[in-house]
Amino acid sequence: MKYLFIAFALFFSACSIKNYEHTRAKIVTIKSPKLKFSDIGYVRHTDDAIELELFIAGHVYQRIHINHLICVNEGCMSKSSFNEEYLSASYPASLLQNVILGKKIYNGKNSLKKDDGFVQNIKTSDVNIKYSVNSQEIYFKDKTNHILIKIKELQR
Fold this sequence. Notes:
This protein is an alpha+beta fold. It has one domain (22-153): Lipoprotein localisation LolA/LolB/LppX (outer membrane lipoprotein receptor (LolB), chain A, Clam). The protein has three helices and eleven strands, in the order H-E-E-E-E-E-E-H-H-E-E-E-E-E. It has an eleven-stranded antiparallel sheet.
């Protein structure tokens, strides 16, 4: 019984509440076969965890927690399982985390530095990705898999 309790506690601690060091309100657009969203969202993160909280008309629509697992309203799963179910099975496990934080994907493949960011164009038999990051916007589009992720700064 003691071991069952420990296993239960460890499993559910993956989605536990964290104190995030950075919190920013953004305009978030996500279009995939299973997720469709475009409205205000909060991006919160520390060095080892990310939370993307999505709102529609002032109400929480979806929370996505990313650490060693990805947790959504429906439950927690591995990063590769999340990609398979919500995005594309051909993506590397860390793709969503890197896109939300505006980091290079695919180990920086085809990365070109721009004035205030970078651009990556990645084309294989499984993906056709245009990914750009600058101080105002993160833009990820995969034409092959019909995925769009856009995160824009709120205009002040």
